[in-house]
Amino acid sequence: MRSVIEARGLTKCFAGLTAVSDVSLSCERGVIHAVIGPNGAGKSTLINLLSGDLKPTSGKILIDGLDVTGSGSSQMSLLGVGRSYQRSNIYPSLTVAENCNIAVQSRFEISMRFLGAVSAYPEVEVGTKRVLERVGLESVVHKKVSQLSHGEQRQVEIALALATNPKVLLLDEPLAGMGAEESLRIVELLRSIRSEFAVILVEHDMDAVFALADTLTVMLNGQVIEAGVPQDIRSSARVQAAYLGEDFSD
Ligand SMILES: Nc1ncnc2c1ncn2[C@@H]1O[C@H](COP(=O)(O)OP(=O)(O)OP(=O)(O)O)[C@@H](O)[C@H]1O
Ligand SMILES: [Mg+2]
Question: Is there an atom of ligand 1 within 6 Å of 12 CB?
Fold first, then answer.
C-alpha cells in the first residue's frame, strides 16, 4: 500500500544541535506508527517538521507520494495533515463547539470575521457536531474549554485535529498528564478512528503505545536506533539500553 506520509532522511539542525538526524519513516492509512524515545530524543521536532511548523535542514517529506518539503503548517493542513500539540493549543475561554467551529471553518474558506454567524454556515455546524460526537464530547459542547477536565481538554485537541478532515493525524503525547481512566478513554477513541487515518503517535505511556501501535520507530539523540513491529522493539537490546533497563517485554 502507498504511504500517505513519508519522511526521507529528515534532518533538523538548531544552533549547535542536530535535533533530528537523517530520520526516515512512513505511514499508511489504517496504521498507527508510534515514535518513541527518551526526553529530548527529537520526537516533537520530528512532528513539527511533518506538520510544517518547522522547515527541515535537509531531507524530504512526501504526502501521497508528492514532494511537499518546505510547505508551511497551513499548507500541510490543506494537504491533509492534522495535528495535536504536546502543549495545549486551544482557546480556553471559548466553548468546545466554538473551538471546533474555528477548525472546521478553516476547510470552508470562511473568513474568521464571520465566525459570529456560524449559523449562516450549516456545513460548519454539521461538521462540528459530527466531530464532537465522534470523540464523545456531545455532553460538553456548550461548556467553556476552561471548565473541562484535563482529559476532556485533550479530547478537544483530538477533535480539533479531526475537524480539519485530515488523512494524516500527528499526535504528540495525547495522553500527557492523564489519569489511567482518561488514558483508556483516549486509547479507545484512537482505536475507533484508526482505520480512516495514517496516525503518527508520539507517546511516553508504553502500555498505550504497545496497545495501539502497528509499527514503531525508536529515536535517541535525534537518530533512529530501531524500527519495526512491536515484538522486535520489545526484544531490542538497543531500545532497552536507551531506556536504561525499562522492561518492555510481556
Ligand atoms: N526551537 C529549538 N531551538 C533549539 N533547540 C531545540 C528547539 N526545539 C527543540 N530543541 C532541542 O532539540 C532536542 C529535541 O527536542 P524535542 O522537543 O524534539 O524532544 P522530544 O523527543 O520531543 O522530548 P520530550 O519527550 O521531552 O517531549 C532537545 O535537545 C531540545 O532541547
Ligand atoms: Mg516532545
Answer: no
